[in-house]
Amino acid sequence: DVGTTVPTRDDRFEAVAVVGQNVVHVIGRSDLASITKIATGPEGSDTHRLAGVVVDGLGLKAAMVPVAEGTPEAILTAVNSGQADGAFVVAPLGDRATSRMIDGITLKLLALDAWKEGANLVRFPFLREVRIPANTYKQQRAPIETLGVQVVLAGMAPVSGDAVGDQGPSAIATKIEPIPAATVKTIAAAIPGKPLVDPTLRQSAALAPKLPSPPASINPAADVSVLNIAIFLMFIGLIWLYARPERR
User: Fold this and answer.
1) Which DSSP letter does residue 95 get?
2) Burial bucket for residue 211 (CB in 10 Å: 0-12, 13-18, 19+)
3) Strand-pair partners of 216
4) pLDDT in tens, 190-214
5) 173 has which bridge partners?
6) What residues contact 57, with CB distance under 8 A and at least 6 apart?
7) Which of these, 149, 153, 134, lies nearest to 54 by C-alpha position?
8) Pairing of β 13-28 and β 108-109
């Protein structure tokens, strides 16, 4: 939940697979400090809440202007109409709709290289530093430092503890069940590259790495233990025979 001062993880859900990465695009006319109003997705949306986190983390004075439709086109319209002088868009790298916003001559991508200052990397560990390569967009001649977030396929997490609620033959299941482990493994195996789930997220137990089996016990059977004891006593006897004083 990024709508609070300290983001919290909702353990009711678990990540099943990584399906991509979204990149934060902050778009303006000159620099971050000059933005007084920044257009975002609709109020309460992930984009709107994430914009609040970034604005707070960078110490900007910009007020957020939620756009009902939330599409890059609608956000661009809000900027061009004067409702805002900056835009906050979260989209995959090279997204066409976002590209149309940046490819003009009046708006440009703004770098977020100040994010590493302070404790932002600790406060918001789910936001990773990302570099947009040069010429990803037409008017972007140099690399841009920004932020990225994983896009994951998620499902309900198993609930530990005693089951409560309606029971019996006539009971009807009304909750969403967790995704079976076999299905999780099938989905993960179908994704090229098999990217790892960000450690800040709760992941399915089926994705946990398999640890090597512990070595077998030294004495797996009783007869082996008896044999070891006999050999040990034999060595003691040999040592005694060797070290005993000679008989006179």
Assistant:
1) -
2) exposed
3) none
4) 877 777 787 777 778 777 777 777 7
5) none
6) 115, 118, 120, 123, 124
7) 149
8) antiparallel
3-state secondary structure of 148: strand
93, 134 contact by CB (below 8 A): no
Contact 102, 27 (CB under 8 A): yes
Contact between residue 144 and residue 109 where contact means Cβ atoms under 8 Å apart: yes
Pick the closest to residue 69 from 100, 39, 109, 37 (CA basis): 39
Question: What's the confidence (pLDDT) of residue 170?
Answer: 46
Distance CA 179, CA 182 (A): 8
Lowest mean per-residue pLDDT among 5-14, 48-57, 59-68, 96-105: 5-14
CA distance 233 to 46: 73
Tokens at 103, concatenated? 């490819």
User: Phi first, then psi: what are they for 16, rounded to 5°?
Assistant: -100, -40
d(CA 176, CA 40) in angstroms, rounded, equals 31
